[in-house]
Amino acid sequence: MTQRTAAVTRETAETAIEVTLDVDGDGDATVDTGIGFFDHMLGSFATHGLFDLTVQCDGDLEVDDHHTVEDVAITLGEAFTEALGDKRGIRRFADRQVPLDEAVASVVVDVSGRPYFDFDGEFSQDAVGEMTSHMAQHFLRSLAMNAGLTLHAGVEGENAHHEVEALFKCLARALDDATRIDERRGDVASTKGEL
């Protein structure tokens, strides 16, 4: 099987980012965004998706967390696009639910090449550490738009830490399922012949 890896950089007046991704990894992560809880979420994403991931981000955290979280999602989305190439043989669709104590998250994904995002839920607290809770939703949206995903996600719970973490774990498991190679398939999973 061809290696499904990518290395993507992004540099703007607000952030400088380097991301490497191995879709068929072991779940190893080296992450430094300057936002401790976000680093924890990206590490969890790698662990539960079995993606090898490195993220180095120098962002304008003196402003707030928005540009860092958004731009990492954009860069990671571009890395998935690059690593998956023509998407030949992938399963394409997946859905997962993941609990974390009282919280439960759900993700339905189609690696379709047609970006769409829908979210159902609210976060119980405004922030977790130095990360604004609603940035988890924005991370998913930005990732979907830049990885070409149709992504429906939702969460419910009583603790924002649990809600956000359940979302990242659920996203990881769904993307792992959807990007796996189906050995029975020699082409792309589309009657159009491409994704």
From TrEMBL:
Domain of life: Archaea
GO molecular function terms noted in the UniProt entry: imidazoleglycerol-phosphate dehydratase activity
PROSITE patterns to which the protein is assigned, alphabetical: IGP_DEHYDRATASE_1, IGP_DEHYDRATASE_2
Catalytic activity field: D-erythro-1-(imidazol-4-yl)glycerol 3-phosphate = 3-(imidazol-4-yl)-2-oxopropyl phosphate + H2O
Location, primary (coarse class): cytoplasm
Pathway: Amino-acid biosynthesis; L-histidine biosynthesis; L-histidine from 5-phospho-alpha-D-ribose 1-diphosphate: step 6/9
SUPFAM superfamilies reported for this sequence: Ribosomal protein S5 domain 2-like (SSF54211)
Family: Belongs to the imidazoleglycerol-phosphate dehydratase family.
Name of this chain's protein: Imidazoleglycerol-phosphate dehydratase
